[in-house]
Amino acid sequence: MSRRWQSQRRAKPARSLTLTLYVRGGFVRTGLIAVGAVVLIVYGMPAYARVFSPERHEIDPALALEDTMAPSPPVVFVDRITRGRGPVLLSDGNLRDSSTDVFGIVSVRVVRLMDDRTPMDQIGLRVVPCDSSAIIRGAGYDFRPLRSPKTGTFSFPLVWIDGATEVQEPISEQLLVYAIDPAGNLSAEADTILVEDPGRP
Question: Other CB atoms closer than 10 Å to residue 192's CB: what's the count?
């Protein structure tokens, strides 16, 4: 199933994440990003940066021997899309910008994660782009979604280098999201999210 959501200018603050930039030629730099906030320390800002690095979902070899039941497909949807933006002209004539302005951020809400023997907060996700040339990608490994301490809801961001400019091209990409339990069983089916934004001329 596909779910669409119109983009909004600002994303709500989320927990800090370690960011890994995967680029052409194997150039990698890491740093810290507080998604939707103003804290960012990144070494290098290459053009085709890929994804963030959330908590890794680990497989328990002991459980793998006794648990063979796969979790149900997850239910997720795109909650918000924030595009990169250019400097803002203030009333005093100065320009205000932020090191996070270069990033595009997709906030994905996890509505359901179900398994016959695993609590929701111990089920991992695997994100796979439908197109191998996509600029928005998964983490490259199985990960755990973030749980909000205030609401208890689960979500995860997808981050890419979008350009610190007010002019943004339209974007339309699909990604598959699978559930995986601590025994390593992968859901037979995936939910599909559609990241679609008209851009800004």
Answer: 15
